[in-house]
Amino acid sequence: MKGFGGxxxxxxxxxxxxxxxxxxxxxLEEMDFDxxxxxxxxxxxxxxxxxxxxxxxxxxxxxDSDSEMIIEMxxxxxxxxxGKSKEYYKKEMSQITGGMGGWMx
Length: 105
Fold this sequence. Notes:
alpha+beta, single chain, 3 helices, Ybab, Chain: A
């Protein structure tokens, strides 16, 4: 019966890890990640789960630039902000799971 106690302990640890993951995922949804491009002319804010929350385009930029360039800067800033949220997720999940891996939303 000695092996059964070890199994109980492992199940308890797995349950605790699952609770930590759920808590972290909830916290992540409420976090914001910011990035900019075009020397700060375009700013993008995304949530921790990669949803674009806000895009700002400097008015001076929009009067001086063509729309294709502005679109490229918005995409660049958005991708950078989403990348930041993914890196943060990976780092935190690695700490929670002890490096056992995890999935990315």
